[in-house]
Design brief:
Blueprint (H helix, E strand, L loop, with lengths): L1 H25 L23 E2 L4 E11 L5 E13 L4 E14 L1 H7 L20 H7 L1 E22 L3 E20 L40 E15 L4 E14 L24 E16 L4 E2 L2
Antiparallel strand pairs: 1-10, 2-3, 2-9, 3-4, 4-5, 5-6, 6-7, 7-8, 8-9
Length: about 300
């Protein structure tokens, strides 16, 4: 009987000791809210993962083309410079120099064989511009770009035919856009020095003449520098550890009037003093971009 009591006492002491040891260990792996944690809590989600972006500088020669232009397509080349502070967060700038070509709509309006062709000669008695008045009011975008913050929330691998595997990531960018707009309307076409305002009477002592109500001879007001918003989304497809194909859609949004014409139907191009509005409006200039990203340094690090 004594042996049974002794065995029970020893068993009870061992259980108390084990519980005390567990409590001591749990104090190191338990949150203040009582949630138990293990050694994986502070470990890397993916071990030996290639850090393709973290602490690397990205240099990307690129090509861009508009995808929603009404009158003038802008195509050109430029460079994107970006520093990746982590695999998710980076900052960068982009600059593009471009040239302009007519869209299909412009070709229809100026093509001699088109049934929609504008009139050849200037007629101030109609609202319709002549071919020359229409073309001279159009503007172009020789320079555009942006400064932005980029977030890369998703990454993974692509498999082609179960043999070729490449890494990829999706990114989203937001920031400030800038552009330089250019136009060239000669004084013989844009001859109205004060659109929407009374004209001086050539006869001495006479009253001023009313506005001519002809927007086709007004300056287009669509040249000069612009600043606005920038949004973009794209992906990297890594060809190796330091080269990646960069595909994106970018939106440079700022005030513009691509046609240079009377948009608010007040019979002149300029600011309306009664409403405070002019013929510029906030427009989204969408571009498709493709480039080759080069990462520096060319060697990568791995998680433990």
């Amino acid at each position: 009987m004594t042996k049974h009591y002794l065995f029970a006492a020893l068993l009870g002491l061992s259980l108390v000791g084990t519980a005390s040891a567990d409590d001591k260990d749990n104090s190191k792996t338990t949150t203040p809210g009582g949630r138990r944690l293990n050694s994986l809590h502070n470990d890397y989600a993916v071990r030996h993962r290639r850090l393709l972006l973290r602490n690397r500088f990205e240099f990307t020669p690129l090509f861009e083309s508009t995808i929603n232009a009404d009158f003038q397509h802008t195509i050109g080349g430029g460079v994107k410079l970006e520093y990746h502070m982590s695999d998710m967060l980076s900052i960068g700038v982009i600059g593009v120099y471009g040239t302009s070509i007519h869209t299909g709509l412009v070709d229809k309006l100026v093509n001699p064989n088109s049934p929609s062709k504008l009139e050849d000669n200037t007629n101030d008695m109609t609202r319709e511009p002549s071919v020359t008045e229409f073309l001279d009011h159009l503007n172009s975008m020789p320079v555009h770009g942006a400064a932005y913050i980029s977030i890369t929330p998703w990454y993974g691998k692509l498999a082609a035919f179960s043999q070729a595997y490449v890494a990829f990531d999706f990114y989203f960018q937001g920031g400030v856009s800038f552009a330089q707009l250019q136009g060239d309307c000669p004084t013989n076409i844009c001859s109205d020095a004060a659109p929407g305002q009374p004209r001086p009477n050539p006869m001495p002592g006479g009253e001023n003449l009313p506005p001519d109500n002809n927007p086709n001879n007004d300056p287009p007001l669509n040249t000069g520098g612009r600043a606005g918003l920038y949004l973009a989304g794209g992906l990297h497809v890594f060809l190796n550890d330091f080269l990646a194909l960069d595909l994106s859609v970018r939106d440079y949004a700022f005030s513009d009037n691509p046609s240079g014409a009377d948009y608010n139907a007040d019979l002149f191009v300029g600011q309306n003093k009664k409403t405070g509005e002019d013929d510029n409006r906030f427009l989204h200039h969408l571009f498709f971009g493709a480039g080759v990203a080069i990462m520096f340094p060319t060697t990568i690090k791995r998680t433990p």
